[in-house]
Write a structure and sequence with these properties.
The protein is mainly beta. It is about 5% helix and about 55% strand. The protein has one domain: Maltoporin, Chain A. The protein is built from four helices and 39 strands. Strand 11 and strand 12 form a beta hairpin.
């Protein structure tokens, strides 16, 4: 049963929606009829680092998902994007926890691979989508854009800002089993010259998904404002505060050496009487000043602060001891039993502060046209934790019927972390020979990191500096048709544990990744397409035995991903068709562990295909039906590739109906995910030295109603 407070919060937001509906004309004396524009508009991609240039002009691959597109597909969290783009896949995406991706087969680091309006944030939290205008995913290395980051991609969240015209919108959403969400999106401009703008997004939700024992709630309040000056200068400010409380979903695993039949996707092994919710609170605020300088030049100062508070708690299955005494360290026992641990890490606090100062503009020099950007990013991270519990609580079973006693004592130390970085960057797009452009970028990072256990032990303190270049050449061989080749480097930073049994405690390392890519892309009034071939090489580090008692943390081989991506969209009459595919050849070589050489990374499909079709019904204007399919090949479960899960195919259906009721625009979105209720293992993350399996989400119906006020 949901608590009265949860229902009260949802009712209040719902009442706010109703009040806005009734009094919508009081907010604006003039209302324009809605206009539908059919055509092609390539969106700007700020995550690229090249300003507001449209995607079709850039020598890279990226995807942009608008808020409208997310609503049409019923997306409620970042993890739902995995069915939108074949290069984006799941990486330990559990109900009730934060979202994690792989892009081009590499797991993104939630600490370093996420941006919010271009500034770095920590994504070890729940990220609400209600106040996001679009989600951008850069595919490939991001050394030029982000300094230290995992290879594969970069995710940027673009916040909704005040609109030029008044906006009044309310929505009510329902999703099986009984999740309900009420939200408002309001925007208005004020002042004699309409120089002031405000946009409010608020949402409240009762969470009751089909996964059992995962009932919770969330809420969001976000306010964005701007002040437009007559000289073209603009001041933008925004705040966001969110809260989510929900038990997370524990993973299944191998039963000995056997892959079990896909489990009931509604079953949650985190169902002990003492299981508690994961609580994720986030507060973010930013301030951005844009000041025109000489014609064609602009100075931008953009600062943000983020404060996260988390209570991370779960009844956590991990390995097992069989009745014959055999210990399975990375899977469950053949009889379906497992060791269950009481994990609690409460009052986790993460703080991130960033300030970016940049100048951007265009100039002619040496007979060439230059689009220049130069700036500096200052970033500070401070993470504080308390002692944690990770205590054996008894034996569980995969049928979810075992009951154990809690073991909440805080017996384990945690790790405090601090980081300061200064990143200088410069970029230049040089247009020459009419259709040719050279793209040059450089980022120099100075890094200082410190860590220490909560008991004062294992202290590390190191400084590094490195430069990550990017170069590309593009050729517009026809109007709206582009060919390009690019090369870039990315960097990760790592340190050997400061422990007595390491031969090199506290030694710092720089992990330099490299990417080469060639691509084609084009567009016309009816057709858009892109094709890219890439190779990414990432060095790997590991604990390598030095003798019978000592370990050395050192380089240990390379992971190489070679791939081909293809995407296209066609619009003709009432039809819109989209298709995308990724073919990936990912291998590990050069490891001191011979059994790992030539093997594929875990939880990465070698082939992924996405298909989408929309049809506007002429017999009923305003009605659109949509089908979306995802087809994935199998994934390996353990590093030596001795076990794998088969691939699967899933089909989603949706219908959208736009109409007017009492002078208000009303849009209905109705959908069914996993229409055939396909049973399969969706992903196989190898996390914390353990193999886990997550089932494909069950057939789920959902409904959203949007009302323009």
């Amino acid at each position: 049963m949901a608590s009265p407070k949860k229902h009260l919060l949802i009712r209040r937001v719902a009442w706010a929606c109703a009040i806005c509906c009734a009094g919508g004309t009081a907010f604006a004396q003039t209302r324009l009829d809605s206009v539908t524009v059919t055509g092609r508009a390539s969106p700007p991609v700020s995550v690229s680092g090249w300003g507001d240039l449209s995607l079709e002009r850039l020598p890279l691959q990226a995807s942009v998902f608008s808020a409208e597109r997310l609503q049409e597909r019923g997306a409620q969290r970042l993890a739902d994007l995995t069915g939108f783009d074949p290069a984006v896949a799941d990486a330990y995406n559990a109900e009730g926890y934060w979202d994690q991706f792989t892009v081009r087969g590499f797991v993104l680091d939630n600490r370093f691979n996420f941006r919010r309006d271009g500034l770095p944030i920590n994504a070890e939290t729940s990220i609400p989508l209600d106040n996001k205008a679009q989600i951008e995913i850069l595919k490939g290395l991001s050394g030029m854009q982000a300094g230290t980051s995992a290879p594969g991609g970069l995710v940027n969240l673009v916040v909704k800002r005040p609109t030029d015209e008044p906006l009044r919108r309310a929505s009510l959403a329902w999703r099986e089993h009984g999740s309900t969400t009420a939200a408002v999106d309001l925007s208005e401009r004020f002042g004699t010259a309409r120089e002031f703008g405000l946009r409010l997004n608020a949402a409240a939700a009762h969470l009751d998904p089909l996964v059992r024992d995962s009932e919770g709630h969330r809420r969001l309040f976000a306010l964005a404002g701007d002040w437009r000056f007559g000289n073209g200068a603009r001041l933008e400010a925004e705040i966001e505060t969110s809260h989510r409380s929900q038990p997370s979903q524990a993973g299944f695993s191998l039963l000995g050496d056997t892959v079990p039949e896909p489990a009931d996707p509604r079953l949650n092994l985190n169902n002990q009487p003492w299981s508690q919710p994961v609580v994720l609170d986030a507060d973010t605020a930013s301030l951005r000043w844009r000041q025109p300088l000489a014609p064609g030049w602009i100075f931008t100062a953009h600062g943000a602060t983020q404060r996260l508070r988390s209570d991370d708690r779960i009844a956590f299955p991990f390995g097992c001891t069989a009745s014959d005494g055999t210990y399975y360290a990375d899977r469950y026992c053949p009889d379906g039993s497992f060791d269950l641990y009481d994990f609690r890490s409460e009052n986790e606090r993460r703080r991130s502060d960033a300030l970016d100062l940049s100048v951007q503009g265009a100039a002619d020099a040496g007979g060439l046209r230059h689009m220049l950007t130069a700036g500096v990013l200052l970033h500070r991270v401070r993470n504080r934790f308390q002692r944690q519990a990770f205590n054996f609580a008894g034996t569980g079973t995969v049928d979810g019927r075992s009951v154990t006693d809690p073991a909440p004592d805080l017996t384990d130390e945690n790790t405090q972390r601090d980081e300061r970085s200064t990143e200088w960057y410069a970029r230049d797009a040089i247009a020459f020979a009419e259709r040719w452009t050279a793209w040059l970028g450089l980022r120099h990072s100075q890094l200082h990191r410190q860590s220490v256990r909560t008991d004062g032990s294992r202290q590390t303190d190191y400084r590094q500096s490195f430069t990550t270049p990017f170069a590309a050449l593009s050729w517009a061989f026809a109007p709206d048709q582009l060919a390009y080749a690019s090369w870039g480097r990315g960097v990760q930073s790592s340190v050997a544990p400061n422990r007595d049994f390491y031969t090199n405690p506290g030694e710092a390392f720089t992990l330099t990744s490299r990417q080469a890519e060639v691509g084609l892309k084009g567009s016309s009034a009816a057709f858009e397409w892109s094709l890219a071939a890439f190779q990414i090489e990432q060095p790997l580090f590991a604990d390598v035995p030095a003798d019978e008692e000592m370990l050395t943390f050192r380089p240990d081989g390379t992971q190489r991903h070679r791939g081909l991506e293809a995407q296209g969209a066609w619009r003709g009459g009432p039809w819109t068709l989209r298709a995308g595919g990724q073919w990936l050849h990912a291998r590990r070589d050069g490891s001191s562990t011979a059994a790992l050489n030539g093997k594929e990374p875990t939880n990465v499909p070698a082939r992924t295909l996405t298909l989408q079709a929309e049809h506007h019904l002429a017999a009923l204007p305003g009605l659109t039906v949509e089908a979306a399919a995802v087809v994935e090949s199998g994934r390996f479960v353990v590093p030596d590739n001795s076990v794998s899960i088969p691939g699967y195919a899933s089909l989603d259906m949706a219908a959208h109906y736009a109409t007017r009721i009492a002078a208000h625009a009303v849009t209905w979105h109705l959908g069914i995910d996993n229409l055939a209720d396909k049973r399969a293992w969706r992903e196989s993350p190898y996390q914390f030295g353990h193999a886990y399996l997550y089932p494909l989400r069950p057939r789920t119906a959902w409904l959203t109603v949007l009302v323009g006020l």
